[in-house]
Amino acid sequence: MNRAFRFTLAALSCLALTAQAADLAAGKAKSEQVCASCHLADGNSTNPQYPILAGQHPDYLRKALRDYQSGARSNAIMADQAKALSKAEIDNLSAWFASQPSKLNMAR
């Protein structure tokens, strides 16, 4: 193996060890505990006051929750909900909602 290839392989191995896959089952369980009353457990809210989370990009959902935690995004209810979440819980919730089929009505 050449030196560049070994370096690349070592770097990718480190990334794989540090990146932790989200736990969909944990995301589902957490959604049932803290999200379902407004967004429903699968993220397909039927109340127009609460956004549909199902099918959203996980990066968007993670950023939104972290922004609620930090105060960069303002909503009293969501700020309180988000502050109680760990990084792993945010990752799990984001992955769970992203994996759910969305019932958004796409008008054209």
Automatic annotation (TrEMBL):
Alphabetical list of PROSITE patterns matching this protein: CYTC
Regions annotated as coiled coil: none
Start and end residues of each Cytochrome c domain: 22-101
InterPro entries listed in its UniProt record: Cyt_c-like_dom, Cyt_c-like_dom_sf, Cytochrome_c_Oxidase_Subunit
The keyword Thylakoid is assigned to this record: no
Keywords: Electron transport, Heme, Iron, Metal-binding, Signal, Transport
Gene Ontology MF terms: electron transfer activity; heme binding; metal ion binding
Signal peptide bounds: 1-21
Cited Pfam families: Cytochrom_C (PF00034)
Keyword Secreted: no
Domain of life the protein comes from: Bacteria
Protein name per the record: Cytochrome c
Native organism: Chitinimonas arctica
